Amino acid sequence: MLRDKNLIPLSHQHQHSLALCVRIDRASPIKDAELAVWQAEIAQHFQNEIGIHFAAEEAALFPAARQFADLGSLVEELLTDHAWLRERFELAVAQSMSATDLAEMAQRLSAHIRKEERDLFENLQRLLGEEQLSELGRRLDIALAETNSSCIVQSDATRLRTVKS
């Protein structure tokens, strides 16, 4: 199903986070000497985008989904993911992550995004009417207004690597 225009800003941010996950996956296992730069980039990404993204979902998207009994358990799973991921982002800010922590965070963030895109967004597009989706889009625009759209400059250590054959 095509993504509704009112959910596209969230989907674009999901793409940014998935790109980070791919880079972490391709760099794994991350060398101890590179942990600090990875954590700094993750912390910056959380501050500029993901933290605001999570708050927007919790303020606008999840309440819209909770209108439907069938989506209640999915919303609870997503909120649990948010809490777990916030803890990992705090570890990155504190420069306390191991290479294993980084890989686990990337896997969980990727799975979380796919669950939102494939399950939550698809169901909301099917269940909400055009006016409801438009109102949701308006609320998301307001909630996402503080997102910093500047590019994160990757270091040599965090630049995308080719897949090893």
How would you describe this protein?
This protein is mainly alpha-helical and 165 residues long. The chain has one domain (8-143): Up-down Bundle (Four Helix Bundle (Hemerythrin (Met), subunit A)). 70% of the residues lie in helices and 0% in strands. Helix 2 runs parallel beside helix 4 (99-127). The longest helix is centred in the N-terminal third of the chain and has 31 residues, at 35-65. It starts with 7 loop residues before the first helix and ends in a 22-residue tail after the last helix.
Give the topology.
Blueprint (H helix, E strand, L loop, with lengths): L7 H20 L7 H31 L6 H22 L5 H29 L2 H14 L22
Shape: elongated
Summing up helix and strand content along with how strands pair, one would put the structural category as mainly alpha
Total number of helical segments?
5
Tell me the series of helices and strands, N- to C-terminal. Answer: HHHHH
Number of strands: 0
* Strand-residue proportion: under 5%
Give the overall pLDDT as a whole number.
92
Number of domains: 1
At CATH level 2, the architecture is Up-down Bundle
Low-confidence stretches: none
- Biggest sheet, open or closed, and with what strands and sense? none
How much is the radius of gyration in Å?
A: 16 Å
Helix content: over 70%
N- to C-terminal separation?
34 Å
The CATH topology turns out to be: Four Helix Bundle (Hemerythrin (Met), subunit A)
